[in-house]
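Something for you to look into today, if you have time. Could you write out one complete protein record for me, on any chain you like? The space below this message is yours for that.
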Amino acid sequence: MFDPSASADFIALYKRNLVPLHVVLCSLVWVLHDYFVTLEDEVTYIWTQRPNFGRLMFFWIRYYTIMLLIFDVVQVHSFTLPGVSTRALCIAADPTLRILGAISLWSVEIIMQLRIYALFNRSKKVAIFNGILFLISMGLFLWILVVNTFHRNNLIAPFIELPLIGCPGVNGGGQWALWVPATVYEFILFGFALYKAITSSAARIKFDHRPSLISVLLQENILYFLVIGCLLIFNNLMVVGATRIPWFGFGPFHAAIGIATSRMLIHLRKFSSKNLEGEPVPSSQRIHPIGPTLMKDSPDLLERFDSDDSNTRGTHDLESVAGSSRHSHSLLGHAGNLELVSTSSSLPCPRVASD
């Protein structure tokens, strides 16, 4: 007997299955468009760097994102071919896509941990705390993924025999919880960045009316955490059906993570190259702001701070995160209640006439 309600449900499910086919193509085009738009900056500011960890992570995230979107397109569209989307493949494809997406997110979170570590002056306590939480979030993700995979068969069983295009685009059960650990961890890192932005006086220092590297780093961190956090929340809301937007797959999420991170790293490297790598200025012609006043070099004072690695290490780490090809010897230290900012050969300094 013909059941109008069942027919309407099938039509709705059929239409929902078509959405990822179109959206994943748009996501790939988005990634490729952004790649060619930013390729000139990549060649100028990234390819010319000496090999370092930041450069390696940039290339990994940049090109892994492109390959991931190509895989998404091939997987989604190949499953539309007759006889391809079997029950076993549909069950295996879901955790595979989620693992590949998690690798992208975890790679970015490693970079963000290092940035927080540098911002907090290489604090081992902060590094250990964030590292432990990172491992816990990974463990919870994998545990929830395994549980959901075992329940995936029962979830798609009522729909697998229907004449749908591809695998049934259904979500349910505990899938909403999969990205919760990563979401919580992102907002914890966001809290660290926000705290540093509020309390750091170094972030408010400007050289020749230009923002400092710490200021740029904090602004980018806060913006990134907000974007990725909102994407994770939106993804979870779609899974539980809290939005009226149909499930459009992981393509936009994979693309957004790669594009946001690549642009963030290029921009920081570009800022570092333009503002922190100037021509050396002789020591006798440098000036140093101390509190509200300016004074010429004091050899004893400079020797005292130049020999203090605890004051320079945070800035050197920021240079490394920015991918600078030269070390900056800018000092962010404290002399009593006065904050000293010592410019160096890496920073263009205003010249003063020598006597």
